[in-house]
Amino acid sequence: MCEAGRLLTIQSHVATGYVGNRSATFPAQLLGWDVDAVNTVQFSNHTGYGRWGGLRFDEHHLTDVFDGLARNGLLTQNRVVTGYTPSPEALSAVERLIARLRATNPALVYLLDPVMGDMDRGMYVNPNVLPIYRRMLHLSTIICPNQFEAQLLAGQEITSLASLRAVQEKLHVEYRVPHVVITSLALPPDDLARLGASATMPDGQEAMVLVGSTWDHGLQSWFLQFPCLGEYFSGVGDLFAALVLARFATHLDDLPEPARAAHALEPAASADECTLPIARAVMLAVAALQHVLVRTRATMVEQGARLQLDPFRPVTQLDADERVRVMRLRELRIVQSASEILRPRVLYRPQWARS
Amino acid sequence: MCEAGRLLTIQSHVATGYVGNRSATFPAQLLGWDVDAVNTVQFSNHTGYGRWGGLRFDEHHLTDVFDGLARNGLLTQNRVVTGYTPSPEALSAVERLIARLRATNPALVYLLDPVMGDMDRGMYVNPNVLPIYRRMLHLSTIICPNQFEAQLLAGQEITSLASLRAVQEKLHVEYRVPHVVITSLALPPDDLARLGASATMPDGQEAMVLVGSTWDHGLQSWFLQFPCLGEYFSGVGDLFAALVLARFATHLDDLPEPARAAHALEPAASADECTLPIARAVMLAVAALQHVLVRTRATMVEQGARLQLDPFRPVTQLDADERVRVMRLRELRIVQSASEILRPRVLYRPQWARS
Questions:
Q1: B231-267: per-residue pLDDT in tens?
Q2: Which of A13, A21, A39, A42 to mutate: most B Cβ within 10 Å?
Q3: Helices marked H in B171-264 — which ranges?
Q4: Is residue B11 within 8 Å of B21, Cβ to Cβ?
């Protein structure tokens, strides 16, 4: 049995601040989802602060919670999102749960965010999660890797349009992922131009390029570009993933009522615009995210000035106490952005990839 | 240092359903509070289901999380709410935290819900929590006991208006609690009448009588009565406590912007109406709660009919599987009631006690 409007998120919990489940839960609830949440850790604050209290939960505790749900017939969620998971053992417990959900509900929409690292820092989790994530790909509906994670999953670097295509095809065909959203992509300028994108926004700001694809008798590829704002903040990927999952809809009936309005009000703006359901969900997620980031950045700059702290200073240049204070300034202003999460103004729209 | 608009809640976490922090967090966030949450347990579902997975966290884990916050200067919340706490040891850890918060911020608003039992079931926690709760009373700003808990704390039964007054005075004067809200009170009809209240609503429905008091050079006592709707549902007290704390304001500036509108729009309706800040907060909390309960009850009846389950059957008459299904039907519809939580229609107003 499956309940419409019920979404499960399995991520970290921090007592204060917005990463993991703390970043995902409120926005999805705001959009009308009955959000179920299993916490994989309970920390005082996220680990970017440098110091924290609390603990990672082991696979026995997670399995015990999952089994409690199963025994009571409470695995009825029709959407699931998973993100950072603290150990290969815990991830295996999550894998078993998703397999169980998928088996009982073929229509399950599962968004897998395969959190492993990024281009700047490389792998920041136990490398033994990689084969587990690869195994989990066939259970997923949507995946949201960054370029680094997409490369790891496909076992192939992305250095050109051709190698991007190869990675997309591998994820769709070999690993049977319906929708792939590569959340940030660096390509040589010529390759970006052939895609239809560019490294800068029309006003000269540095651009992020997100590339999405869906497999439907062949590769359907699109991209979205928007100003780069998120580099200082933690929890952005978790918020993005939750918003995409909460917004994704083949039919408006798939969504709780509060999530419908923004969809209904946003007709395609041009013939080049990609109107695939996943592209629409990403468009609305990015729009909300940009509001949150603009507000977070403004508050951070204002409070930093008041506290005589430079919020942009690299963490490596800060002593332990300064680092904590700077990380605090960078916490996402999610609660303050409730109305924009619900009704975001769309400035950036997804375009079909040109080649 | 203290941050306006930051509220800490220390309660249970369930993966699915609405009790403890799951009942408290979303409504307070909706009202604009940056909610910090420490979970004292992680269960699959609340224990009323009869079966569950997960664990109670011990005092070491809780202390570790609290210490992480303290070490990082993150105990800046200016509001705190605590509810059910699983053991005397865990409650002692909470007590030490509140003492620390109170010492650094004399303006802290702390709502203590001394969850111990009720008139029907008696004491349902370890009795060793009682002396700890008594010690914690002088740290509190507001307490929300039911009649059973108020009696335990004061060490005196409430059987008449005179003994009610004695209990209120004891809590205010001996235990130095500024605001006492006794959430349900059964008194002989004559005593209710002398208070100004009655056991039934004007339309004949059974009434709940809530009695509040504030000590300000003497006892200022008031009451609120409203239809009895909550008896089948779990998490109602946790939702009520969070709403009272999120709504309580001596000045409108004390509240985040989303919480202000309902206050500003509700002038006193009569000369008998009590306009103490705590009575206004309770009025708005009860109004929101009634919306949630009416919606929950309607959904429960409708789904019960569809599933051929009687949602009102006492738990003791159900086998284990039926019990789980009935408890599921009774989960609060909090997410679905977002707009009424934000802007509740006020039907029941607090009146000054007559004698």
A1: 789 999 999 999 999 999 998 889 999 999 877 656 7
A2: A42
A3: 189-195, 236-247, 257-264
A4: yes
Answer yes or no: is pLDDT of A21 > 70. Answer: yes
CATH of domain A6-352: 3.40.1190.20
Q: For A220-231, how does the pLDDT look when each residue is reduced to its tens digit (9 = 90+)?
A: 999 999 998 777
Residue B303's pLDDT is what? 94
Tokens of A39: 């916490």
Max Cα–Cα distance, chain B, nearest Å: 57
Contact: A53, B38; criterion CB under 8 Å: no
Conformational region of residue A343, where left means phi above 0, alpha means psi within -120 to 50, and beta covers everything else: beta
DSSP-assigned states of every residue in B249-292: -SSGGGS-HHHHHHHHT----STTB---HHHHHHHHHHHHHHHH
pTM of this structure: 0.96
Cβ–Cβ below 8 Å for B53 and A71 = yes
For Cα atoms A94, A95, A97, give the angle at the middle one, nearest 5 degrees: 65
- Residue count of chain A, please give it: 355
Residues paired with residue A211 on neighbouring β-strands, in sequence order: A182, A223
Asked whether this complex has an ipTM greater than 0.90, the answer is: yes
Of chain B residues 221-280, which have a CB less than 8 A from chain A? 258
A225, β-bridge pairs: A209
**Mind telling me how many Å the CA of A30 is from chain B's nearest CA?**
7
User: How many whole angstroms separate alpha carbon B118 and alpha carbon A254?
Assistant: 42
Three-class SS string for chain B?
A: CCEEEEEEEEEEEECCCCCCHHHHHHHHHHCCCEEEEEEEEEECCCHHHCCCCEEECCHHHHHHHHHHHHHCCCCCEEEEEECCCCCHHHHHHHHHHHHHHHHHCCCCEEEECCCCEECCCEECCCCCHHHHHHHHHHHCCEECCCHHHHHHHHCCCCCCHHHHHHHHHHHHHHCCCCEEEECCCCCCHHHHHHHCCCCECCCCCEEEEEEEEEECCCEEEEEEEEECCHHHCCCHHHHHHHHHHHHCCCCHHHCCHHHHHHHHCCCCCCCCECCCHHHHHHHHHHHHHHHHHHHHHHHHHHHHHHCCCCCCCCHHHCCHHHHHHHHHHCCCCCHHHHHHHHCCCCCCCCEECCC
Contact A16 B258 (CB under 8 A): no
- A285: CB partners within 8 A, 6+ apart: A240, A243, A244, A247
Q: Is the pLDDT of residue B151 over 80?
A: yes
Could you identify the residue written with the tokens 């509240």? B255
**Predicted local confidence at residue A143, as pLDDT:** 98
Rounded to an integer, the average pLDDT of A12-29 is 98
Task: Please report which confidence band the pLDDT of residue A268 belongs to, taking 50, 70 and 90 as the band edges.
Answer: confident
Q: Cβ separation of B16 and A325 shorter than 8 Å?
A: no
Give the contacts of B183 (CB within 8 A, at least 6 positions apart).
B144, B145, B146, B210, B237, B240
Choose between A79 and B4: higher pLDDT: A79
The alpha carbon of B244 is separated from its chain's Cα centroid by a whole number of angstroms, namely 7
Kindly tell me the burial class for residue A100, based on how many C-beta atoms sit within 10 Å of its own C-beta (0-12, 13-18, 19 or more).
middle
∠ at Cα B315 (B11, B209), nearest 5°? 60
Interface of B with A in 169-188 (CB under 8 A): none
Pairwise CB contact (< 8 Å): B54 & A64? yes
Main-chain phi, psi angles of A352, to 5 degrees: -60, 140
Buried b (16+ CB within 10 A) or exposed e, A274-283: bebbbbbbbb
Mean pLDDT, rounded, for B186-204: 93
Q: Please give the residue of chain A at the shortest CA–CA distance from B53.
A: A68
List, by residue number, the catalytic residues of B.
Answer: 238
